[in-house]
Amino acid sequence: MVAYLALLGALGWQARVALTRTRHAIGRSIVVGCCGIIGAVAAHNLFEDLHVLHLSVQLAAVWGLMEAMGNDGATSDTSDTSEVIPATSNK
What we know:
- The protein is mainly α.
- The chain has one domain (2-70).
- 65% of the residues lie in helices and 0% in strands.
- It has helices at residues 2-21, 25-47, 55-70.
- α1 packs parallel to α3 and α2 (25-47) runs antiparallel to α3.
- The chain is elongated.
- The N and C termini lie far apart (68 Å).
- The relative contact order is 0.15.
């Protein structure tokens, strides 16, 4: 039960980060939808331990999508491809 609550806490933190970093309204809508899916599955699993085929694959995809939306607004020096330096110069 402690591990399950820790997982839900980590997902809540990930959702909060994704909501604050996402720039676009569609990205925020996707994150809110991911939160709805996670909440529905978590509530279902508390009351009924029903084995649903490939539900873990769907949850992994939702978690990955939420993480991708959270990294939408993140910037780093290595991911900036707006300025490409040519390999050779014409002199």
